[in-house]
Amino acid sequence: MKISIVGAGYVGLVTGGCLAELGHQVMCIDSDAAKVATLNAAGLPIYEPGLQELMARNRAEGRIHFTTDMAQAVEHGEVIFIAVGTPSKEDGSADLQHVLAVATQIGRHLKKFKVIVNKSTVPVGTAYRVQKCLQDELNKRGIQESLFEVISNPEFLKEGAAIKDFMHPDRIVIGLDASPNYNTVHQKMELLYSSFNRHHARTIWMDVRSAELTKYAANAMLATRISFMNEIANLSDLLGADIDSIRRGIGADQRIGHDFLYAGTGYGGSCFPKDTRALIQTALDCGSQMKVVSAVENVNDQQKTLLVSRLTYHFGQDLQGLKFAIWGLSFKPNTDDMREAPSRIIIQELLKRGATVSAFDPLASKEGLEAVSHDTQDAEALSRFSLAETAYEAADNADALLVVTEWKTFHHPDFEMLKECMNQPLILDGRNLYDPKMLQDLGIAYQGIGRRNQLALNFKAGAHIQQEATSA
Ligand SMILES: NC(=O)c1ccc[n+]([C@@H]2O[C@H](COP(=O)([O-])OP(=O)(O)OC[C@H]3O[C@@H](n4cnc5c(N)ncnc54)[C@H](O)[C@@H]3O)[C@@H](O)[C@H]2O)c1
User: Fold this and answer.
1) How many CA atoms lie within 13 A of 334 on its CB side?
2) CA-CA distance, 39 to 295, in Å (whole number)?
């Protein structure tokens, strides 16, 4: 089938690459000419495991092309996916300017019937707005014919495992409303995704509004699990319990399951923070409230500053003259995505207090530096931030090491070497990678998140909660 995909970002490129791999003829269009030039020169503007090889194979076989030309893309695809960004606006609602601009541009070039598939994460009612933009453009050209059907097909892939997620989906959600085009569109989408339904039907059909809301509900549910576990971890710190034992204890309950039960420094990335905010705003727009999701967001905001609160409890508010190592910049392993990464908040808080920060990330150094430069208004503060070539270089002479992203390469460091190179052997493990007892035996002061080993550091458990309460 001939497919066009508007937006060559994390979702657009993975969708395009995977559909090409299944034999479809794919054209990806992006308004960013530099991105398209990179793609046409056999490069990739993002990192996603396996994507380079997938693209190379399908480029070589002539199944995927890249362009900035919307007329060409509209002409090409029987099905046209919209996969552009929907970032947060100031009030937390989803910014639909890119989605609606794309709809208008498609409308300008539409000559025959196309299925317009919204893959971007968008609030309920967006399909209707896309439809209106398209129709307005057709009206301007005096076209009365029904030349499109707008449907919703939210994407559930995870960065870092996106190809596997796309190729082995738990489910494919498609929102399609009753219309004269219903059967045509239903058949086309069934055919498009038929490779995934061979073993058993994975497509879940529903109306458009439900499909739009399903995506937000899924992300809010996952974010809730994370914030819930972070709260239980913080309580474990106060009570001397161990969150890792608790995680295994509750995960074994089949009604709960093991996924998304890890306590840490809070969730980030391009989806959970913005999607929970947008859901809260959607409810407010209806005169309602998302009380659980609002609490989830508050807990997450607080969790992102937990490591810094622990440092200031230990060293005091003024961190001048102290150096801290950060291991991991991207919001999670196996991606270079820095959007809303907890490392950004941690680095800002440290620089604000006069500290020197040296960071190492196996992949996201360039993106990390761009993000920190963007966040740091003060040139003097920025001068105290540097990137290290290796994890040990970052830790050299450091007064504490903060583990922020659970890259595999951080799982088994040489602790003796760390002890030797650090100014004082102190590890704040924001991802619970290490065994507290082992580090204690090695003479390294260590604190994880909810790990029953507070005395090693003489930290008062839950210090950040008490500090927040005092300053409130
Ligand atoms: N990244 C994820 O893990 C993920 C997962 C599921 C859903 N989503 C959703 O998918 C959507 C896309 O996310 P992403 O992470 O791929 O975004 P992204 O920022 O990586 O990519 C978006 C691309 O769209 C392009 N674009 C913007 N306006 C355009 C226009 N008018 N014409 C052509 N191209 C245009 C941008 O240049 C950019 O390359 C968002 O709504 C997001 O919430 C993302």
Assistant:
1) 11
2) 41
Catalytic residues: 271
Of all protein residues, the one whose alpha carbon is nearest to atom 27 of ligand 1 is 84
Q: Please give the distance, rounded to the nearest whole angstrom, from the Cα atom of residue 41 to the centre of ligand 1.
A: 21
- Rounded to the nearest angstrom, the distance between the alpha carbon of 278 and the centre of ligand 1 is 16
Where b means 16+ CB within 10 Å and e means fewer, 268-296 reads bbbbbbbbbbbbbbbeeeeeeebeebbeb
Domains along the chain with CATH numbers: 2-206 (3.40.50.720), 207-472 (3.40.50.720)
Lowest mean pLDDT across 111-115, 286-290, 455-459: 455-459
Q: Other C-beta atoms within 10 Å of 437: how many? A: 13
Going from the C-alpha of 108 to that of each of 91, 111, 145, the distances in angstroms are 31, 9, 14
C-alpha 203/C-alpha 172 separation (Å) is 4
| Coil vs helix vs strand at 95 | coil
- Residue 453's pLDDT is what? 60
Question: For residue 86, what pLDDT band results from cuts at 50, 70 and 90?
Answer: very high
Tokens 């639909």 found at:
96
**Cα 468 to ligand 1 centroid, rounded to whole Å:** 36
Burial-class residue 38 by CB neighbours within 10 Å (0-12, 13-18, 19+).
middle
SS3 of residue 210 by DSSP: helix
Does 467 score more than 90 pLDDT?
A: no
Among the residue ranges 13-17, 195-199, 250-254, 386-390, the one predicted with the least confidence is 195-199
Between CA 233 and CA 452 the distance in angstroms is 10
Are residues 239 and 225 in contact, defined by beta-carbon separation less than 8 angstroms?
no
Looking at per-residue confidence, does 297 or 464 come out higher? 297
Q: How far apart are the first and last CA of the chain?
A: 58
Longest Cα–Cα distance in the chain? 79
Residue 41 DSSP one-character state: T
Give the sheet arrangement for strand 426-429, strand by strand: 385-387, 356-360, 323-327, 400-403, 426-429, 445-447
For the CA atoms of 259, 261, 267, 269, what is the dihedral angle to 10 degrees? Answer: -10
